[in-house]
Structures are given as structure tokens and as C-alpha cells.
Amino acid sequence: MTELSKTGAAVGEPTDSSPKPSSFLEVRDLKVHFPTDDGLVKSVDGLSFQLEKGKTLGIVGESGSGKSVTSLGIMGLHTAGQYGKRKAQISGEIWLNGTELLSADPDHVRKLRGRDMAMIFQDPLSALHPYYTIGAQIVEAYRIHHDVDKKTARKRAVEMLDRVGIPQPDKRVDSYPHEFSGGMRQRAMIAMSLVNNPELLIADEPTTALDVTVQAQILDLIRDLQKEFGSAVIIITHDLGVVAELADDILVMYGGRCVERGPAEKVFYEPRHPYTWGLLGSMPRLDRDQQERLIPVKGSPPSLINVPSGCAFNPRCPYADVPKDNLTRTVRPELTEVGTKHWAACHMSQEQRERIWTEEIAPKL
Amino acid sequence: MTTQRTSGRRKQALAAAAVVAGLLTTAACGGGNGSSKDGAAGFDAANNKVAQADQVKKGGTLKFVSTQDADSWDTTRGYYGFMWDFSRYYSRQLLTYKTAPGAEGAKLTPDLATDMGKVSDGGKTYTFTLRDGGTWEDGKPITSQDIKYGIERSWAQDVLSGGPVYLQQMLDPKNTYKGPYKDTSKDHLGLKAIDTPDAKTIVFHLPTANSDFLQVLAMTAASPVRQDMDTKSKYGLHPFSSGPYKFESYSPGKNLVLVRNTSWKASSDPVRKAYPDKVTLDISTNQADSDQRLIDGDYDIDASQTGLGPQGRQIALKQHKDNLDNPVSGFIRYAVFPQSVKPFDNEHCRKAVIYAADHVSLQTARGGPIAGGDIGTNMLPPSVAGGEGQKYDPYKIATKNKYGNVNLAKQELKACGQPNGFSTTIAVRNNKAQEVATAESLQAALKKVGINADIYQYDGSQSPGIIGSPSNVEKKKLGIIIMGWGPDFPTVQGYGIPLWDSKYILQSGNNNYALIKDKTIDGLFDQYTTTLDEAKKTQISTEINHKVMEGAYYLPFTFERLLNIRSSRLGNVYTTNAYSGYYDFVNLGLKSTK
Amino acid sequence: MLAYLIRRLFAAIVMLVVIILVVFSIFFLVPKWAGVDIATSFVGKQADPHAVEAVREKLGLSDPIYSQVWHFFKGIFVGRTYAAGGDVTHCAAPCFGYSFRSEQAVWPVLTDRFPVTLGLALGAAVLWLVLGVAAGVLSALKRGSLWDRGAMVVALSGVSLPIYFTGLLSLAIFSYGLNWINGQYVSISDSFSGWLGGMILPWITLAFLYAAMYARITRATMLEILGEDYIRTARAKGLTEPVVIGKHAMRSTMTPILTMLGMDLGALIGGAILTETTFSIPGLGQAVLTAIKNQDLPIILGVTLITSLAVLIANLAVDVLYAVIDPRVRLA
Asked: Which positions fall inside the ABC transmembrane type-1 domain (chain C) (predicted)?
């Protein structure tokens, strides 16, 4: 890590606008925009958060809310491999372990990828190269960052496969992805991500493509591994249930922005944004009768080219008319602190939200 | 030498020609000014005269190129004109054509024989004595038995198909001999019409006299073949040489290399000069490319003598005209009217078509004055003895009526009883672009006088079964057939007998398309074959031609011309009537042996 | 894997037999129906009916079709003897017929000309594969750039210009015009450098046509592959861009390219007729063209069979390569 801290010092020279943060990962005002024929797609439009080592952050939102774009932004995958004229426009700051990634040399960021930060993708079948064996892909991931011979790397791969719970790892190492079951494939994917003991692990919908019983196993595996390796973990999901037991902090995204952020228990038990209420309402609960459940959020996600003025959620919000002077439709609400380390962006007053939550929403959940 | 065997032009070359010609022209301007301009003899310098004979040196490699291989190099089987011309390198005959330009080249001279032979028994017996020193490529002397055996091979048509059969027709018209391979006599020399009393003497007995017999003896098919060297159907792959050159290697369709036959003695051969050390022939499949290489001087001469292609012609005329000759070939292009198809049984209807045709347009369709030839006015090629060229023009085709004469045509239609015209069909080979063009020209001209003609295109390789079958012609009502014809040997017999003599009307492979059954013409041919006096023969030839033209069986299009190129390296170049205006190959030499 | 190979091989053999039967039917039945008489064109100008009959007998054209097919197959394994009119011609096994037009057995013609065409096809293939794939990859990576548009315009012209045009053009420029190369075919056994000199223009001409197609396919495939999840994974591992493109993306891109290559090579080996004609290369294509002009059926039949065989073998090779490249195929 000497090389990293050296570079980090050079890049992260404290200035007035961007003092070097103390957090392990800090994202400041991240914007990721994509120019298209129809206009500028503002996939992420001013996102900030911090994450400490050993902690887990859950980023929750519907598809198109910008959560995956955020994770790819952190990994530097919007700029790597961008060919052609239309490149993603990225601004803001991403500090990882004292290094600002967006202004760093791209090749330096590449060296961090897979070593300091790793990623698990939603569909392991398409995310693994179909023509190479699982072993070869893990070996490749290891050897790019470690100067070892193939034999050592292979031993490491078998060790990792064993660690993620793949039976007969010394045989399965030579199997191809299509010869694995879905759950096994995701385990292999995790083994590949963790082969270099990354300090930051981003899991993008790691269980969405798997069936329910396997989902729990994979989540358990991620939790165990996090404890063992002490990494910081970001879990990206559209399903609050996935992060319920895993995350220390939860960040709810809507239309490319953060609408609520806070410790997991706060977001679950004292949510202060109508969108979070909707998400909670659409969580499957086995102990409740179907009919009693709150109807999920109506309508469709906002256009990221023409984001609704005011609060981006206002067209779908049942309480859009609660604040006076048509505020929801004209002024964009800022994140305000609604509790200890708990922020939400809503024009309704604290009291109004407390009342609606306790009287109207919570009893139905 | 029927026409279907001569042209080898590529369709795609034609298609690309227009676009590429310009590029080629500029390209040749930039880089192609090598040796060609220097020392070229001049335009038409070798047409009917000898060019640069004094500059020839012995030695070097003479390089031929051709877009097609010979039909066969077997002396018995070859029928392509250029094969006959080329075969003199490796085969000798009792008599051969003089190595002289133009009409003089069509005259005969002794080759293996000591003289022109002794004729006796009223022209039915010919006796020859062989010259001393004539040898095969292994040094053994050429005997009269070898000559007899070589001639006998013409009877074995089942094994050695493809060649001319004049020898058989003149010596054994009833075809009683079965050929040497089925000959049960010990020496396989059972043909009764030829005697070989000793190795140096050969006697021919003709059942009926034929004044062109010497012509037939000069054909390649009368070459000697040695029995122990006869590989039968494979003989054409490596003929055993009696001439100054022998086969070194031959790959069919690819190339042929001749080297000096060291056994051949110049003293034994009064005809052949054998200048180069080596003669090569490459077969190219791209006429545009081979033309360009001829123009650039990479090759010396086109073996197939079919003339330059459209774009090669354009470039050569512009930049290397001094390397070109534009001789009249023996070919006449024409339309012929089968009398079995109504109303062409009436000569007035035939005349109507002759008058209606636009002869300049037909000439243009053939390629114009240079590439196509002169407007044809009668049916005897100018290169054949007795041919008069445009001087004889009974229908004023090249003068008054050259653009067609509608009035005369209508008069003839009236006389024919078809005053409002009629409908008929023009048959034309689909693989000959120029023939199709002439058919279209004729169709347009006929329309003006009320004759509606459909054009029927057929596969040219199937001519014998389509237009060569009189019953098929009658059935399909092919009133006008477009064809071309060249002489097998330069006499009225070698050209006209198959076309005009009633004895030659066949049920398949017929060439007397008009079905001429004219006792006068038959009689004239009989008279010709028994006349030994050359002046008289010429006179009869002219008369036959006149009779044919008076019958209005034919509408001649052109007396064809060739546009051939010779490289600047060549010396002793001349065209000869013996081979229809081709260059005489056998005595070509190089000015520089490098 | 072995089972897969055996299955493919078996299919190929069945296919070959079917092809031979079909080709035979085409060549021996169709002329009969069309009333075309091959024997007639063998005899001279004054067609003597007896000679025609004798020739027909000799060519075996008077035998019933099944007997002709039987003799043909038998000839391949034990050779064949043609006897007629006191002339005996032996055609040693493998006898694929005998051409009485050029008086040679078909098999030596094929073996003589096959290497020529193979040299033409392989040389051109190497060239177009390198050029086409490189241009395609670059175009994909620089999508929408001037290079991309320029390359695709060139590619389009390459696809649409006929060989005899580009061939004559290249001859006009490099051979007749600039005199850089002679441009005439020389056998490789005569002179290697001469052979190279003669082949370079045909290679370029042929490669121009195919490189254009390959560039377009490569570009399209590469663009599609670059959008795949596993390419993102490769980058997420920290692999450098050359490795991501050159290894991960290329391997997938090569699959359709190889399929095409197999087909094209097979077809080319069967005879690059236009190219061989334009440059006078004595390969199979030229042989078949001359044979068609001369109505030399045995040669046409032989070349057709070799073509089919070449296409089959090329496809078999592609199938094997497929299995090597894509492990999923091995299951199928």
C-alpha cells in the first residue's frame, strides 16, 4: 500500500474545496451524465455519502434510479473502455482511502480495480466469460495484481472456491461457467472478486438472478466474508429485504439523487421520505395478509432527461399537496437532517411526516 | 476451321473493358514505352509482305501466348487453324505451303518429298520419293511407311476424333478401311489406297481423281506418325517430332515448351529455318491481360490469331500501331437462307432480304472496317484462288445499296408473292456477341420492308444438332441462319464443297444450310476436282462463286479482317493465305536473342 | 468432444455421398433432357454419325445412368479402364474419371491444380483476415470517427466492386503502369520469389473483397461483444484495455469470423474462377472454366466434387474450431 499512499498524498493535497476526507470511501456531489440523441441523461445528479471499513452500505432504488451507475462510477468503469465520441460526463469527487479517483491517472485506477475494490454483478452467467474456465478467470484476476506463477495462482483459486463453499473445488476449478448452477456461479463470481482481498466490495444486485433459497445463502456468504476480510461493502438492490439484515447504513435513491440516507434501523423504523414508505410497502412480508399490504408506489420512474421540476418524486407522491404554495412542484428539496446521521429530502415538515408515518403507513406494514 | 472454334473472348473482359480501357491507356502511356516503339516494322508491314527478314538472328526464345489451347496437338486430330500453323514446328509432310507472304504462301512446295510428285492414271495415281536425311527426333529416318501409318490414323475416328477427314474422303470414300487399330494385318498398314514399295517411295491410288489432292497431302493430318511411338488417344500430349522442334513439356490448358530437335538436319528441310532455340506457348485465360502483355512486348505473338480484344485494340492502335497488321482472313461472315423454310424457297424472297439489309450497319455490328472487316459482296474469300473480293458485287452491296435499298427489296417481295412482307426467324449462336449484333441489325432493317423476324439464340456448341439438322431447321422454321466459314485449305473445294455441293447435305452436322441442289454447281465441282491446270481451276472457282451468288442463297456480311500484333523483337514476319491470313509461325525469328 | 467429432464426421460423409449422386444426376441427366449431345462436339466438322456413335460408346455415355454411377464409384477405389476402338486407356485409382478432351485422368489434373488454388486461397485468407479483422476492430473502437466512416466506405466499395474490375485495375496500375511487378503466374517449384510476385496482386485483389466483408462483420460483432457483461467484468478485474479487447472480446468476436472463414475458404478452394481467370492462374477455377467451354464433363464433375469436398472439410474444421473456442458447443 505504499504506492497508494504516495499517490494519494500527491492527488489528495488538501485544498479549500476538497479537503482530504477521513472516511475510507467518500463520494462528494457525484454526477454521471450521458449525452444521447434525445438529450443529456442525468443518471446520477449530485450524490454524496461516506463509508467506513468493515461497514456495509445498502443502496436501494428502482431500476433507473442511478444506483448501478453510481457503483460503476466508483469502479471507474464509465471511463474505461469508452470508445467512440459520446463519453460519459462525470464530475464530483470519489475518495477511496485518501485517493481521489476521478482526477487520478486512469491506469492507476485500473490497478486499484480488482485489487482494492472489486465488484459482484447481478447475472453471473453473463458476467463470466463463457469461453474460459472458472479457474482461468480467477487465476487471471489474481495474476494481474500479483506477480506469481500460474501454479500458485491456481492454488489460490482453488482455495477461494473452497472458501465460498464450492464442493470439490480442485475439480470444479476446471469447469466452465455453463457447467455451474446459478448459485454456484455466483459463489464463483464472489470468489473471483475476493481473490485479491479487496478493501471495498460492491455487490450489484447479487441475488436478483437467483432463486429465493439460494439468495439467503449468498447473502450469508457475503456477510461472513465481510467479517473475515474486514472490507467495506456496498450492496446495491431494488429490494429493501436484501439489505435489511446486512446493511449498517441505507441510502435510498430516486431519479439519480439520494432521497433518504441513514442507519439501517432508522430507515426501516423511522423512514422520513414518502418514497421509502413506498419501498417498505412493496416488501414481501410473509406474516401479513396480501390484502392488508400497502399498495406499492404507483406510476413509473421519472425520465432522467427531463426530470420533473421540484421534487422528482412529486408526480407519484400521494402527499405532494401537503406542503403549501405548490412547493413540491417548484423547488427541489435538499437533504435535511431528520435524526442522528439520518437525512431525508422532503418538503413536508418533520411533524407532518412523523404523523403520516405513525398514523397512516406503519400500521399497514 | 469453322468459326465456332476460333474466338475466345471473355464476357467479363468485355464488361470491364469500357471502364478499364481508359485506365489501361493512361497506364501504358506512363510506363509502357519500353522496346515496342523501337524497331517496330510499321503498320501492315507484315501484311502480305515480309517484315525485317534481314534482321533475324539465330537463337533466343520465341514466346507465344493464347487464350485457348489447341483442340489437340495430335497431327491427326487438330482442326484449329492455329494448330495447323503451329504444327509445322514439330511435324513435316510430303508437301507443305511455301513460307512466303500472302497468296504466294498458299502455294505448295515439296517438304519430305523430293518434288511435287508424279501424277499418272488421269490424276488418280500420285507417286512421291522421299528426300534423304529426314529423321525423327530419335535420329531414325522417316520412312514412307511412317507417312502411310500417319495417314491411316485418320480412319480411326472412334479413337482419334476431331480432325479433318479429307484424306479418307478422297482415298477411301466408302470408308471400307477400319483404321490401323482395328487393322488385322501384321504391320497395320492395310489401307489399300496407299502403296509403299520401299522406304523411300509412296504411291497413292485415288478411286476418282481430285485436283486438290496435293492440298490435302499438305494438311497436318497427312503428317507421318511412327507406329512404335503412337500413343493413340494420348498422342496429342507428346507428338513424336519429325520437324526442327520437339516437345519438351506440355500441360494441357497451361503451357507448351518446344526445344530444338537436335536430330533434325537443315539440309534435309528446304522449308523450315528454325531460327529460335526455344518456342514457348502460354495459355492465358484473360484476354485483356494477354493483349496488354503482347502490347508491352512480354509476349511476341498471339498463337490463336483471333485478333486483339476491344480494349487491347484501342490501346494498340493508339500507341503501338507500328506493331499491328490488319490482314484479310479467309473467313466470310454471312446469313444463309434454308430453302426448306417458306418463303425462302422463292429466290425473290431471298433477294428481298439481301436488298433490305443495311450492309454498313452489319459491318459495324461485326466490329467496323478494322476489327470486323470489309463489307462482304460475294461468298468466295479473297484469299482463296479465284476469289475476287469486292470487285464482284452482284447486288451492289458495297456500293449503291450499302445502306439497304427498300425499293428494290419491295419489288422482290412483290415478285415473290409477299408484297406485304412475311414473318420468319433468325437463328444465331448465343455465345457470339457480334453475331447477335448482326442479327439485331438485320432484324431492324427487315422491319422497314415489312419482314418481321424473331431472333432465336441457341447454344453455339450444339450447332451440328440445331442448324446442322435440316429437319430441325424446317421444324423450327429457321429462315435465316447467321454463320461464318473459313477454308480448310485455300481452294474453292477446301472452302465451298461442304457449303454448296448437294452431296454434302447431311442429316446431322450439315453445313449446306441453304440445301443447295444445283446441278450446275455440283457439275462445276466435279469439273474442278478433275482439272489439273491451275488457271482453269481458278476460273472454275470464280464461276462456282458466281453461281452461288446468282442463286441468292447467301447474304454476305464481311470479308473478315484480323488485327494482330507482333512484338518488336520479331523478324521475318508475314501473313499467309495458307492459314487464313495468320502469321506464318514456322519461320519467325528474333532480332535479338537476349 | 470425441462423440461430437464423430457425429460431425459421419454427417459430412453422408453429405458427400449425396452430393456425388446429385452432381452426377445434374451432369448426366440434365444434358439428356435438354437434348444436348456431348459426343457430337467431340468429332470434327464433318460429323460422321458412325464416329459420333463410336465416341459416345467410348465416353460411356450410352450406358444407363446407374451403371455410370457404379463405374464412377468403383473407379475411385480400384481404378478404371476405358477401351474403345483398339485404344486402351487406364485410369489408376483413385480414378475420378478421364477427360477425353484433354486426354488426361481427372485426378492428376485436380492434384496438379489444387495446390495452386490452395496457395491463392490461403495467402489471400491470411491477408484479408489480418486486414479485415484489424480494420473492423479499429472501426468498432473508434465508432463514429472519421476513420470508422472512411473504413466502412472502403469496405462497402470492396464488397460491391467485382473482382474482374479490381483485378484488371490492379494489373493496370502495378503491372502495366508502374511496372513494379510482372504479375504473371510462376509455379512455386520454379521460383519462390517469382511465385510470390505473381500471387501478390491476386492475393490483394481477393483480399480486398473479403477483407471488406470481414471488416464489416468484425466491427458489428465487436460492438455487440463490447456491450457484454463479461467484458465489464474483465475491466472490473483491473485488466488492461489491450487484454480486454485482445483476449476477452476477440475470442468471442472470432466465432462468427471463423464460421465465415470456413465457408469462404471452402468455396474459394473450389475455384476462385474470376480471380484465376483475370490473373491467368492455372488453378481449379481456371480448369473448370476451360472445361465448361470445352464441354469437358469429367473435369467439371471432378472439380465440383473437390469443391464440395473442400466446403465439407472446411465446415468440419470450423465445427472443430468452434468446439475449441466455445466450450458450450462441445455439449451439443
From this structure: 114-322
- Angle value at C-alpha C130, between C129 and C136, nearest 5 degrees: 85
Element containing residue C309 per DSSP (H, E)? helix C297-325
In this structure, the number of other CB atoms found within 10 A of the CB of residue A299 comes to 9
| Check: complex ipTM more than 0.95 | no
C160: CATH: 1.10.3720.10
CB-based contact A77 C232, cutoff 8 Å: yes
- Decide if B586 contacts B89 (C-beta within 8 A): yes
A and C in touch (3+ CB pairs within 8 angstroms): yes
Record: contact C326-A131, CB cut-off 8 A: yes
The CA-CA-CA angle for residues B10, B3, B283, to 5°, reads 45
B583: left (phi over 0), alpha (psi -120 to 50) or beta: beta
> A141 at the C interface (CB within 8 A)?
yes
CA distance A71 to chain C (A): 11
Which of C61, C91, C121 represents a domain boundary (last residue)?
C91
Q: Are residues C184 and C304 in the same domain?
A: yes
Residue C309 inside a domain? The answer is: yes
Residue of C nearest to A142 (CA): C237
> C147, C148, C152, C230: best mutation site toward chain A, by most A Cβ within 10 Å?
C230
**Shortest Cα–Cα distance, C155 to chain B (Å):** 21
Fill in the DSSP letter of residue A35: E
Whether a cis peptide bond, with omega within 30° of 0, leads into C94 is yes
What domain range is C58 assigned to?
A: 12-91
Beta bridge partners of B335: B482, B555
Taking contacts as CB-CB distances below 8 angstroms, the residues of chain A near C240 are: 107, 110
User: What pTM did the predictor assign?
Assistant: 0.73
The domain boundary, picked from C38, C59, C91, lies at: C91
Residue C5 domain-assigned (yes or no):
no
- Which of A129, A137, A202 would best serve as a mutation to test chain C binding (most C beta carbons within 10 A)? A129
Chain B residue with the nearest C-alpha to that of C44: B162
Domains and CATH numbers, chain A: 2-116+198-364 (3.40.50.300)
Residue C101 lies inside a defined structural domain of this protein = no
Question: Can you give the pLDDT of all 332 residues of chain C as single tens digits?
Answer: 677 778 888 888 888 888 878 877 777 776 666 666 667 666 666 656 777 777 777 777 777 778 878 888 888 888 888 877 677 788 888 888 888 777 888 888 888 888 888 889 899 999 999 999 998 888 888 877 788 888 888 877 777 777 777 777 777 777 777 767 766 787 777 788 888 888 888 888 888 888 888 888 899 999 899 888 899 899 999 888 888 888 899 988 888 888 888 888 888 876 678 888 888 888 888 888 888 877 788 888 888 888 888 888 888 888 888 888 888 877 65
Check CB contact of B18 with chain C, cutoff 8 Å. Answer: no
The interaxial angle of helices B287-296 and B11-31, nearest 10 deg, is 20
- Structural domains in chain C (count): 2
